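User: Hey, my collaborator sent me this sequence without any context and asked if I could get a structure. I don't really work with proteins. Can you help?
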Amino acid sequence: MFDELRELYQEVILDHGRNPRNFRHPEDATCAAHGNNPMCGDTLTVYLALDDDGVIRDAALEGKGCAISVASASMMTEILKGRTADEAKRLFDSFHGMCTEDDFDMAAAEDADPDALERLGVLAGVREFPVRVKCATLAWHTMSAAMAGETEVTTE
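Assistant: No problem. I've predicted the 3D structure and written it out in structure-token form, which is a compact way to encode the shape of the chain:
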């Protein structure tokens, strides 16, 4: 069973990595940031379109990187649409914990959407490979920088 689940997770990552969703530069973006992971050469730009109420109406990306980096960015753009900036921050915090903490408790992350965290769970395996954590979290750091008005972020 574990091998089947691992294979499914790999398929999801490869699908998003090869066919990223929302791979474009939206003309109505209200904020954007460029992210760089010098360890493996991942580079991407995250674009967000927030409405007057702070709701993310659109999220998109452009760039290149490893399958994990692109898959994480692709999944992030799907999950963020329709969420507030506060909800996006809580998701980022929980996702980061999922990727870095051995004792991360999904149930304890009550303030983040459990369905979204479950979808992002396919990337939690990076916790076993610390250098890959930066790949999985690059888009999220970049999104956070964009919402804070920053234009550049690096994983170093």
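In plain terms: The chain has a mean pLDDT of 91. You can pass these tokens on to your collaborator as they are.
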